[in-house]
């Protein structure tokens, strides 16, 4: 198999016609998303160009310290983004950041120690990026669902507390609901991998000329690590959020009204 030609900047510019088409359809449907779509496309271009320039330096000169610093920045950004989905939850930014960090460290360290991946920047950073992204999504879903459960099920939670249950037991059914919601996307994606679409890692390797039977090994590793990262992030988020939602006397904190949209 021969590697395909990489599109040049004229090809990238030509692909913008698809964005223009999508924006036109959104405008004709009066969705109010046309400006957002154009801004998103422009931001994606600018961000990717900037990231590519920095990564080129990290790959050439950063080594392991540069890779770890880059991963730390990704974790901080991911925690901030995930926390925005649950404004009003006590200590949401610190909970989200710590949950993403735990999932990332455990998952990536396991892959490195077991020899599945090495510590070269061009390997470590992309793999960690996938892990951070999956952990961020699971964390955001968990926090969002936990807030909804507290808002809608406060009477039931407080009733269990009044019967003598501690905070963990009183909140357990709602934590399980949040965890199921957060983990289902990763579980479903693992179930249908390869049947509905060829995932990103496998597609990239095939486009690079790697044999499909070789590419699937890497994709299996990716799917397993994403499933583990999502689970670790969701469970860590639920436990940390529970400690933030209740005081030392096992009383449920009052939450501020959700922000207006």
Write the layout of secondary structure elements.
Elements: H1 9-28, H2 34-84, H3 92-113, H4 121-162, H5 167-191, H6 200-207, H7 212-245
What attributes characterize this protein structure?
mainly alpha
Tell me the distance between the termini.
51 Å
Mean pLDDT, as a whole number? 86
**Biggest sheet record:** none
Radius of gyration: 21 Å
Q: Catalogue the unreliable spans.
A: none
Assign an overall shape.
globular
DSSP strand (E) fraction?
A: under 5%
- Give me the strand/helix succession: HHHHHHH
Helix/strand structural class: mainly alpha
Residues in helices, as a percent range: over 70%
Detailed description of the structure:
This protein is an all-alpha fold and 261 residues long. It has seven helices and no strands. The longest helix is centred in the N-terminal third of the chain and has 51 residues, at 34-84. It is globular. The mean pLDDT is 86.
Brief account:
With about 260 residues, the chain is mostly helical. The protein has helices at about 10-30, 35-85, 90-115, 120-160, 165-190, 200-205, 210-245.
């Amino acid at each position: 198999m021969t590697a395909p030609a990489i599109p040049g900047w004229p090809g990238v510019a030509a692909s913008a016609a698809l964005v223009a088409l999508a924006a036109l359809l959104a405008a004709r449907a009066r969705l109010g998303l046309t400006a957002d779509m154009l801004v998103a496309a422009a931001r994606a271009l600018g961000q990717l160009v900037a990231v590519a320039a920095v990564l080129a330096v990290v790959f050439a000169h950063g080594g392991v310290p540069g890779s770890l610093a880059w991963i730390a920045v990704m974790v901080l950004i991911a925690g901030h983004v995930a926390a925005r989905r649950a404004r009003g939850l006590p200590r949401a930014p610190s909970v989200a950041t710590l949950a993403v960090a735990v999932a990332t460290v455990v998952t990536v360290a396991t892959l490195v120690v077991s020899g599945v991946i090495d510590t070269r920047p061009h390997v470590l950073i992309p793999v960690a990026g996938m892990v951070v992204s999956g952990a961020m999504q699971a964390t955001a879903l968990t926090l969002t669902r936990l807030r909804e459960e507290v808002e809608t099920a406060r009477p039931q939670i407080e009733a269990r507390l009044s019967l003598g249950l501690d905070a963990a037991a009183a909140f357990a059914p709602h934590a399980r609901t949040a965890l199921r919601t957060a983990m289902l996307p990763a579980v479903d994606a693992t179930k249908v991998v390869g049947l509905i679409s060829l995932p990103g890692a496998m597609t990239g390797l095939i486009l690079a000329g790697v044999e499909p039977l070789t590419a699937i090994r890497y994709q299996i590793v990716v799917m397993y690590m994403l499933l583990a990262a999502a689970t670790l992030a969701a469970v860590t988020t639920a436990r940390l959020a529970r400690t933030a939602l209740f005081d030392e006397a096992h009383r449920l904190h009052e939450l501020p009204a959700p922000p207006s949209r």
